[in-house]
């Protein structure tokens, strides 16, 4: 159970369902309730499927490329930090990825729900806690994201635009802190390997 929660919390921060509420509301504006529900189901299914591919096959790809866990921890942590910093400084890159049409799979599923931060976090967690625990943590987080999107109108009304942005900024700060911790662990692994050699 402890392993599950250690995987669940970083993914909860990386998914940031509350942070994408304004984009979801904009993309689904004017849609009838049944079509909005279909978009939510499609986005959650797509995001979960893509994340699971990384969970179960990402490590194989790393081995084929000769990348060690420490290599990926440093690179992945640095990427997470850059992504969180980019989101903290502005939303232009997120807005640019959104489009009209049927937004369920793209952009809501990928890259908004299951973007680079989530995929990188998945690969890091698999190395630390194993694929099955990480896969269950992914599923739990995507279901929570689906519930958040389902009640998006009410949540946005309660939090307001300012409240939503505050929650988003706090989660991004947490993601940046997790990124720094990951880089630190990777460097510690390098140092232990060097001393052991």
Write up this protein:
Helix 1 packs across helix 8, helix 3 (33-65) crosses helix 7 (116-129) and helix 4 (69-89) packs antiparallel against helix 7 (116-129). The protein has helices at residues 2-15, 21-27, 33-65, 69-89, 92-96, 104-113, 116-129, 131-150, 152-196. The radius of gyration is 17 Å and the shape is globular. With 197 residues, it is mainly α. 36% of the residues are buried. It has one domain.
Residue share in β-strands: under 5%
Largest sheet: none
Low-confidence regions: 92-100
The count of strands amounts to 0
Tell me the distance between the termini: 35 Å
Tally of DSSP helical segments:
9
Mean pLDDT: 86
By secondary-structure content and strand pairing, the structural class works out as mainly alpha
Share in helix: over 70%
Tell me the radius of gyration: 17 Å
Assign an overall shape.
globular
* Succession of helices and strands: HHHHHHHHH
**Number of domains as seen in the coordinates:** 1
List keywords for this structure.
197 residues; mainly alpha; globular
Entry summary:
86% of the residues lie in helices and 0% in strands. It has 197 residues and is mainly α.
Outline the fold blueprint.
Elements: H1 2-15, H2 21-27, H3 33-65, H4 69-89, H5 92-96, H6 104-113, H7 116-129, H8 131-150, H9 152-196
Helix pairs in contact: 1-7, 1-8, 2-9, 3-6, 3-7, 3-8, 4-7, 4-9, 7-8
């Amino acid at each position: 159970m402890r392993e599950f929660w250690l995987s669940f919390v970083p993914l909860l921060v990386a998914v940031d369902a509350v942070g994408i509420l304004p984009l979801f509301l904009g993309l689904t504006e004017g849609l009838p309730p049944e079509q909005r529900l279909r978009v939510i189901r499609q986005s959650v299914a797509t995001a979960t499927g893509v994340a699971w591919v990384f969970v179960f096959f990402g490590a194989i790809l790393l081995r084929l490329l000769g990348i060690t866990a420490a290599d990926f921890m440093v690179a992945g942590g640095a990427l997470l930090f850059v992504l969180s910093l980019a989101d903290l400084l502005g939303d232009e890159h997120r807005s640019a990825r959104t489009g009209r049409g049927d937004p369920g799979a793209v952009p809501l599923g990928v890259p908004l729900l299951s973007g680079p931060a989530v995929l990188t976090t998945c690969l890091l967690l698999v190395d630390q806690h194993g694929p099955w625990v990480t896969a269950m943590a992914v599923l739990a987080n995507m279901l929570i994201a689906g519930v958040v999107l389902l009640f998006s109108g009410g949540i946005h009304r309660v939090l307001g635009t300012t409240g939503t942005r505050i929650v988003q900024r706090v989660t991004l700060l947490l993601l940046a802190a997790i990124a720094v911790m990951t880089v630190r662990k990777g460097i510690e692994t390098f140092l232990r390997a060097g001393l052991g050699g």
